[in-house]
Design brief:
heterotetramer, A: 409 residues, alpha/beta, Rossmann fold, 15 helices, 14 strands, 17% strand, B: 256 residues, TIM Barrel, nine-stranded parallel sheet, 9 strands, 14% strand, binds pyridoxal-5'-phosphate
């Protein structure tokens, strides 16, 4: 095995011995497809009929007028089949799985979007599928759990640790080390041991490539700023990839501020001073951990951002200054979501709403010849229980009570 | 020197016994008592696991022990003190087992010097493959500590040669795919694998993952140098009676 | 006013005197845009950035193999923003509303998809919005009600009559006759008084136009059969429009068989012998009515198909024999949905599942050189409560009870 | 002949009163009693609404009455018998009010012959605009029945001329936008509209939608020929005492 790929001092491949052969095969296969035109074509055909790629870049005229500052564009990853950018990565890994001849796929999921995407890919490719999901996330993203099961996947609630994304990742690795012969672990974000950060970024970079073309097409110039929420970092790396070389484009990663980064309840690894470098879940990056190296509990209203680590590529881009990191807290995200819904008729996922929140803050104070792009990584349908609770929607509560009575009868 | 200890002991015993504890589980006081029982029962080496919040390679039994110990507030500092106390008290080799982040956050150099200072013999760190572990390996070796590396059934012959060259003390050979604590079938497949392990290194071989009965150990006896009992002992602790540990180890132990 | 447009003996414009001026204005405006290239361009730009038109035509390889008969293609209207074809019509009417200078929009909705689409359009175009929805439908499509409200619309549960789609239409008309000065009634299907059947078909015909191009592109020949579910008839007219002149293409409209067309609980107007010609809700068509002309109660598991009338255009195409009509009952639809989910990883709306059900029946017995296209009019996310109940999903019930307990506490 | 009746009566009264019932609401027996009260109270014309399941132009009060009557099982045949009985018994004109589907399903020709046969004077069908109603209008006129058409505030002068040419008996002029049963403001706007109505036709004008008090009728007196009271009477029925109907009508009625 080679040493895992590093980005500055971040990355690497910290895996148990039992997985070494599996990783060698994976890296080998990934290297083969990276520059394979036929693979690219197959992938793009798949994404343009199974999903609706290229996804639109949408000019948010009303929000632009509302803030009376920069022109606001929105990249519509929410329109993807299964409702988020997660499908881009999963379908790519799905094609790899077929090439490797494996018959089973496992995945972790936080928001459930990666789980639904993986279960969907498994249904399409005829693979067995098991999804690990923290028990806390099972509760807050129930509709997605339901759909995964309908798609034929087994959803395993993980009751260990903080019962969120990181614990689901651990469990998925535990499954993998026992079943790697027939099983691929389709990691859902640009984290984990090499080659995952690179590979997930590679598949997600389709977002940035399209966006670059689209904005030039609309405006004949580059955007001033690009905003993306950062859980593990896959949607952010996806859209940032299209602009990394354009130094004049400011890239802004938005993390979960939870109850505020001045409290301990947040998941801001790069936007706060609370994280430090560590090695866990197979890679080296900034983690929210204590001085002993034990991972902290994190908090976010958005399950998909509620994670202790972050893409090693982003940790590096943070250190080099190429990407600026900000945090938006729960309340701000919900407010931003509500504004986007009411002004434009689009429903961002709770995760995406964080990117909206930060973009809104900055749009106000920009001039009208600036252009802002927000990556709408997903749609909010899955968040109905969370949003209803956030808004204390009485009719919803009444409806749920009514349904429950029916079930109790 | 760990290797020498093992080879020497093997003159007297067909197979050595290595047991495992999670420091601070179920609490630090009991950990002392468990070690005492183990040593009294004649265990040859002991792995001391410093709890980590993300023990990716461990199955449910050890995972819960890690979490419980952490929930009780155990710190790395306390683990060091514990290790120091028992290493001074008992005359067998103690090893640390943990995940790399524990060493890294402590400061790799400091951690390793400290290990040396308190009299440990080596460490098993399952998530630092040799390719990523250059600094770790060289610091360990510089301090005469054994960086114990792992063979698995999926490790190729070539790779075994590479891995054992980085390792010292012994090779920790995992009996099967998967995490700690599940059943292992002690069958012919295993024999072939053990043979591969023995062929590829001069280091003693410790076999772990799923060893839990007198029969298992008899089966392994003569094939490997050390049998490792991990989760099974925690199961005994969980079932309540500490005195059962000594009984259990004595019952399964083999003397020449 | 002119006499309303007729299709054979069906159609017309049976409206109260108070609406005559409003309809004159509407017809006038519609006639202006019908052949206006600029409008077409505006409309298509809007649909390609606010939604993801053209929506893909997807080759369902697994279902094709499963039935070992005709090649099965699926037109992916489910990928539209807001989750169904309904947006095509609503955005078109939205542009008309802006031209007419009205500031408020009202709509009826059955499945809630037209309501969500209308509320979305209203948010985007800055219009006040009221949605009428039968009380029965409010219950079975609760997630959609929630989103309409978040989008800023007022949802009025209609407790009159059968408390389904037809009653919502009546209520919308009652609102309209009081408020037509500033209000447009965006009817959601190819029914109602002229010019609605023509106008809704006009906007939905984008489905058929795209599909025609796409299938020629993929197969270089026309499909053998095209299947669409028929509630009011808008998605069916939308896709059929692309093939009406191609006589060799068989068009199949699939109605709701409910508990079976041999029972009284169904909504098969054209596929059963239970309907007769009548005039109600402003137009002449086949209605499920008794000998006195009173409308019957209908039944379908799919709220969007649970309607007494049907597009006058389809009534005519039924009489001329151009379109064949079939009925799929509740159970068959649920089964078809489940099969589509598990085999292809797509989640049809309960309505669309009826088209799938009939297509599956016929795919089995066709030869491999035949091509079948199914219009997937929408996605099933909205149907989560219905599907969970149909499958008696225990985990879902447990979750709902848990949530209810939280609300009761 | 309906027109003649109205003009004649208007010689004696400043304004005539037309009332409305939903046949079979709350039940057929009570419907007979209501008609009896109305005639005794001196009402000049009565609209008999044949219930329809989709009464699109009616507000909640009349809508519910339609639904209740249908739920009680009323049929079109029973409505015909009811109409026949009262038309024979009482010496004032009765009109049918319903939606077009009722006529259409009965068979337009048969329905209209039947109307003639049982002695009705005409019909008000709000959802058959003249453009769609050629056959209806010609059959009505052939049978000397009045197809009563409607003016609304949004009807242009030109269209009023067109509509009144199709109509007969009188013009039903709705006082405002909206459905039956809501309040109408009797103000100057209304006056202007009434003036427009009067100017565009020689037919008598009946004004309805929201008329419900002595003041309303006094206000309309001299401006239109007929005041129509619809929902208000159903409200009285709903409040329980049938005897209130006669009292109410007498109280609001005006004789020359
Ligand atoms: C809609 C959506 N956006 C963002 C994320 C965060 O993941 P990442 O940072 O990898 O894009 C998730 C994760 O589940 C998600 O579902
Ligand atoms: C997804 C979907 N399909 C089909 C229909 C039926 O309507 P139509 O027949 O007008 O397409 C509806 C109606 O709400 C719908 O939501």
């Amino acid at each position: 095995m080679q040493k895992g790929k590093y980005y500055g001092k971040f990355g690497g491949c910290y895996i148990p011995e039992i997985l070494v052969a599996t990783f060698e095969e994976l890296i080998d296969e990934f290297n083969k497809i990276k520059n394979d035109k036929q693979f690219q074509e197959d992938y793009q055909n798949l994404m343009s009929t199974f999903s609706c790629r290229p996804t639109p870049l949408y000019f948010a005229e009303n929000l632009t007028k509302h803030f009376n500052g920069a022109k606001i564009y929105i990249k519509r990853e929410d329109l993807n089949h299964t409702g988020s950018h997660k499908l881009n990565n999963v379908m790519g890994q799905g094609l790899l799985i077929k090439r490797m001849g494996k018959t089973r796929v496992i995945a972790e999921t936080g928001a459930g979007q990666h789980g639904v995407a993986t279960a969907t890919m498994a249904a399409k490719f005829g693979l067995d599928c098991t999804i690990y999901m923290g028990e806390v996330d099972v509760m807050r993203q129930r509709p997605n759990v339901f759909w995964m099961e309908q798609l034929g996947a087994t959803v395993v609630p993980v009751c260990e640790g903080s019962r969120t994304l990181k614990d689901a990742i651990n469990e998925a690795f535990r499954d993998w080390v026992a079943n790697m012969d027939d099983t691929h672990y389709a990691l859902g974000t640009a984290c984990g041991p090499a080659p995952f950060p690179e590979m997930v970024t590679f598949f997600q970079s389709i977002i940035g490539k399209e966006t670059h073309k689209q904005i030039i097409n609309f405006e004949n110039k580059l955007p001033t700023k690009v905003f993306a929420c950062v859980g593990g970092g896959s949607n952010a790396m996806g859209i940032f990839s299209g602009f990394l070389d354009d130094k004049e484009v400011e890239l802004v990663g938005v993390e979960a501020g939870g109850n505020g980064i001045e409290t301990a309840q947040h998941a801001a690894r790069l936007a706060s001073d609370d994280a430090s470098i560590g090695i866990a879940q197979g890679y080296k990056t900034y983690f929210l951990q204590n001085s002993d190296g034990q991972m902290n509990e994190t908090h976010s209203v958005a399950a998909g951002l509620d994670y202790v680590g972050v893409s090693p590529i982003l940790s590096n881009l943070s250190e080099t200054g190429r990407v600026r990191f900000e945090a938006i807290n729960d309340e701000e995200a919900i407010e931003a979501l509500s504004l986007a819904v009411k002004k434009e008729g689009i429903v961002p996922a709770m995760e995406s709403a964080h990117a909206f929140g930060q973009a809104f803050k900055e749009a106000k104070n920009s001039s009208s010849d600036e252009i802002i792009i927000i990556n709408q990584s997903g749609r909010g349908d899955k968040d109905i229980f969370t949003i209803a609770d956030a808004f204390k929607d009485e009719k919803w509560e009444k409806f749920i009570k009514f349904k429950a009575e029916g079930y109790n009868a | 020197m760990l290797k020498d200890y093992i080879n020497e002991k093997r003159q007297k015993k067909d197979i050595l016994l290595m047991t495992h504890i999670v420091i601070g589980y179920p609490n630090i006081q009991t950990s002392y008592e468990i070690i005492d029982s183990m040593v009294k029962a004649g265990v040859d080496l002991i792995e001391l696991q410093i709890p980590f919040s993300e023990p990716m390679a461990d199955g449910p039994v050890i995972l819960h022990a890690n979490q419980k110990a952490l929930a009780n507030g155990i710190t790395v500092q306390e683990c060091m003190e514990f290790a120091e106390n028992i290493a001074q008290k008992y005359d067998i080799p103690f090893l640390f087992m943990s995940y790399y982040n524990i060493l890294f956050k402590y400061g790799l150099k400091t951690f390793i010097s400290k290990m040396k200072e308190i009299g440990l013999y080596g460490a098993i760190v399952p998530d630092i493959p040799p390719e990523e572990g250059e600094e770790y390996i060289s610091l360990m070796k510089k301090n005469n500590l054994a960086p114990i590396y792992i063979f698995s059934p999926s490790t190729t012959d070539d790779r075994m040669k590479f891995v054992q060259a980085q390792s010292d003390g012994f090779i920790y050979s995992v009996a099967r795919k998967g995490v700690t604590g599940a059943n292992t079938e002690f069958s012919q497949d295993l024999d072939e694998y053990i043979e591969r392990c023995n062929k590829s290194t001069d280091l003693p071989i410790a076999l772990g993952f799923g060893v839990k009965s007198k029969e298992d150990i008899e089966y392994l006896s003569g094939k490997v140098d050390i049998a490792v009992i991990g989760s099974e002992i925690i199961r005994i602790i969980d079932n309540g009676k500490l005195s059962d540990i000594e009984k259990f180890i004595k019952q399964i132990g083999i003397s020449k």
